[in-house]
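Hello again, I could really use a second opinion on something today. I've been puzzling over a protein and I'd love to understand its fold better. I'm sending you its amino acid sequence along with the backbone structure tokens. It would help a lot if you went through both lines with me. I've dropped the whole record in just underneath, so have a look.
***
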Amino acid sequence: MKQRVPYLLAALVATSFVIRTAMAWLRSVPALFPDEYIYSSIGRSIAESGRPLIRGGSAHFPALLQPIVTAPAWLIGDVDTAFRVVQAIGALAMSLSAVPAYLIARRLGLSPRISLALAAFTLLVPDLLYASFVSAESLAYPLLLVSVYAAVRALAEPSRRSQVLFIAAACLTTLARVQFAVLPVVFVLAAVVVGVRERRLKGAVREQALPLGLFALATVALVAAGPSRSVGIYRYLLGFHAGPLGILHWASLDAMTLAYAAGWIIVPGALLGLWLALARPRTTGELAFGAVTVLLAAALFLEAGLLQASLEAGREIQERYVFYAAPLLAISFVLYAGRGWPLRLPHLVLAAGLVLMSVRLPLSGYAVVSTLNGSPILFGVYWLTGRLGTAGDASALVAAAVLLMTLVAVLGSRRPRLGTPVVLGLALLATGAASAGAVIFDVQNTAAVRQALLPVDPSWVDRAQLGNVTMIQSFSGGRGNTLQELFWNRSITRVALLPGAAPFDSFRTERVRVGDDGSLTVNGRPLSGPVLADIYGSTVRLQDARVVGKSQTATLWLPERADRPRLRLYAIGRYSDGWLAKSGVIYVWPRVAGRRVSGWISMRLAASRLAGAATITFQFAEHARTTVHVRPGRPQLLRVPLCAAKNARVTYRSKKVTLVGVRAVTVRATAPVFTPSPSACSALG
């Protein structure tokens, strides 16, 4: 068996790589924003200029390992091909996590057969879905396991070689994902635990002089530089303040999803295995593993809970912060089972408690669009809800599976030789099923996103070959569609915000000033060159420019004779799918600078049958307004005059709104059309 292990492990990694790559290539578009945009942009910048920039400005982003590793892929001219290569790199990196998982198990004295099973478990964790994402998880996952292996080795058998290995692994893991800056703290505390438990604290600390000294120097340098500078764009986290109850609440929810991600059935035994590793360790290596695992898990829960409790809006379960502990739980379970399942009554109590938790806190209650973005487990539950029809049916099925697995685990504790492989096999089955559900949902979701936001060729702006393009973001512009355009089109090198538009990320944007004649200036200079106008939340029309192409939420304009396009019409609050917001304004600028605006604004209004009739009031002059009553099946034509010396505007407001997704809207409307006519001024008197 030992002679075949390297080949079996290599086969496991290769199989995972092929399957994960194939599943990744089914994913239509990136969807985890802004992360996937950030990592891809920095990777492209490093490949092209050697500097970590985003839209020409400094990224201030400390997690640079993934962009550095994937930078060569972004040298490929076609964005879609480069995206697929980056996904393959992620699939390979995450598949390699089987190797450190196997090494940890072997160092703890587990058999090659069981160690291979644990390596397979590591590759079935649902969060390996992130192998298909352009994000840090693909590198952080295997590196974290390498760090745990190196830490256990350095604590159990201190040597210069093992300590240097841990230092290097911890640095790389932190460079991959900043949350793992806690690794030195975990190591130091674990060394103290080992020293106290073995009653040789001074000796244990003295043995770790090299890593402790380097960590102390790094801490001094961090303090000298200032924490806000060291964490880059994550400096906003330093100002967060959250109560302990809020942190505990969210950390508990993250722990619940981790239990599901780890296959559920092994969790009670894993907790007891960790307790025994600390209370009654058979070897120093087992003690070190228990200390590192408990401290690391506590740090991960604390980080995730602090982040969630501190955010005022957009809170969601952050399984992606804690799933790294899943393979360590599987190893802990085997450590417990290898002792003959000695604590049967505590095991029964823990199992019953977990079942009760699953009933009181059903996952379907959190598997909603606003809260599932950071949890592949919730991806799977959301997909299951769609298949079964109701959240209650999904909850019942999950609860039944949990109860069945718990009963098997309790019965298996009576016959350890049979129970251990059965329980481990069911854990593999559960994680595999959850992984399949997560992948199916992600594939379907990204296909829907691509259809809704992008044309057949998502790199359509690049294909136009117009050179550098400026994107102008309008009022209520969607972050997702904007970042999709930026991801797929490298020629969009600049982003400018029209009046009323809000920044969609923390990176470089500029403000647009609109002159009385519709001229556009940025930082006191006229805006020139091709323009990509965002039309997701507002209708935008330019003059002195022609339309080169369109997507569902953007229009590409090319200046004609003058290289300086001007605004002709800006309808704030009219969405690209025709819905009108509760209130908004339509601006019109003169076609010739210095001339009066005189003409008619027209648009056709239609009420939704689901929402019923609506009444909208339009004001088009200081003392001139009209009220339109729109009923389902009876569209109304709006036609109002405009007359102004410079630019003119029409405001509108409705008291009745309907929620469409997360948007508060009233009726559908065709794109507003302005028809110049001197009669408009006469109509207003």
The longest strand covers residues 579-588. The two ends are 97 Å apart (CA to CA).
